[in-house]
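Hey,

The postdoc asked me to send both predictions to you directly instead of through the lab channel. I've kept everything plain text so nothing gets mangled by the mail client. Protein one:
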Amino acid sequence: MKTALKILAAAVLLSAAGAAFANDKVMIGEPNWPGAKIVANLLRTVITTRLGGQVALVPGTNPVIFAAMDGGKGDIDVHPDVWLPNQKSLTDKYVDASKTVALSKGSYSGRAGFCVPTYMVKEHKIKSVYDLATPEAQKLFDADGDGKGEIWIGAAGWASTAIHQVKVRDYGIGSFLEPTKEDEAVFFAKLASQIAKKKGVAFYCYTPHYVHRLHDVTMLDEPAFDSAKYKMVQPNEDADWLNKSKITVGDSPKFVHVAYSKSLERRAPDVARFLANIKLETELVSEWTRAVVVDKKEPADVVKAWVAANPKVVDRWLGL
């Protein structure tokens, strides 16, 4: 009897989906980091295979995606990987103030900071962020031979990149290491080369991320998070953001949600319910990123296989 009711519920849901999608294609934003790309493909797979919808992926930065979700016109409907508190300025504006964007009820956890290859810890005693703010570190991390070291702080457009630019300055690292910005794929190709030669390299890192499975790296110690010592103004909030920000402690724990335009509650309510209910696990996302980046599998193939193998989990997300 329960099985019959479940099948009937699924049929009703799919029927409703057909009506909801008569005129609407769900547009999922695709930020430029691996976890976001993978989760975007997961959402597309569930919406197309389980809800019978149409989906397109749209590359975009965090501010662009949130502004489009706020508009509610279907230009971009979903942000697949919202890191809080990194993107708090955007959720404050669109989730809390405008109330045009909603966050998934569930989230997975993460952690962010600076990493070095573990041999730098063992051989050169680089254990904390303050160990990067020394003349010795300046020499150890100078990859281009210009007399000053380098530290990768992320890609342009990431909220975390601005955060770590402030940290490099306020920890005193900037006097010895130049903060650099470039696409993640470009930097991690350089990282592999530097590690192969056992050279010094310092970089922004976070979990879940494939780098922890691909290389032996260590996250450096930072002072414990203290809200009184953590003031971050994002570039989208104020042109003078750098001077108005000051961070002298480590980050608080991260929580990662899916965000979606509340216009979907009207245009495609079954999709909105799914996005509200989805809950991912840190280890699962980490495994997916390893499969995509290390094993060179396509994100769509990885998540399609997982969805096919885990129908009960997807059922819960769909409210079945």
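Protein two:
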Amino acid sequence: MRRSASLLSVALLVLTGSFSYSDDAKKVDNTPPEGFIALFNGKDLTNWKGLVADPKKRAAMTPEELAKAQAVADEKMKAHWAAKDGVIVFDGKGDNLCTAKDYGDFDLWVDWKIEPKGDSGIYLRGTPQVQIWDTELPAGNVGSGGLYNNQKNPSKPSKVADKKVGEWNTFHIVMIGEKVTIHLNGELVVDNVTLENYWERDKPIYATGAIELQNHGNTLYFKNIYVKDLTKK
């Protein structure tokens, strides 16, 4: 009961804006507001690693197998993801970019930009995904921000809040337990919705996992990636 009460209190604080950061804090790119850390330092890919398989397959690997696969994935990652002029840029090839650290409950800000026909997303705890796409695409007219792979729970955002392709957008994503709340460009598009376990449909979402920047073969841009760990210590 104590943990439930604690999570409820955190959720109420998030929804009332206590975890927001001011416009002043956003004026300097890749500089985190108080209480957050910058997952991207604006210079290189410190805090990030390459993708090794999926959570179920990784869990079945021995430490030696995982270390070997991670080394290969990191080299592949460096060939396609890069820091350029204060922005993480993906060249449209390769696999997802993953945080080096796993997260449980968290408060996350991400600025993103796509090109025409862009299709991307943010994996939460290694699980797909908060959807990003060009709203001119047939499937994209519902807007970005939905929990695309949900089957039993809502998968679409409540409104279209995307800016024009080529402009920067901002996600504010809060995940507590199984529940996810998302604001896109200041508009609430997902309100405390359960994120389902894509990899093992008969199980709840994993308690922890990496935050991943997903690719679908398009050039992508990310910056101002800030996280606050909300997991009860």
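Summary for protein two, as requested: The domain at 2-229 is CATH 2.60.120.560 (Jelly Rolls).

Thanks,
C.
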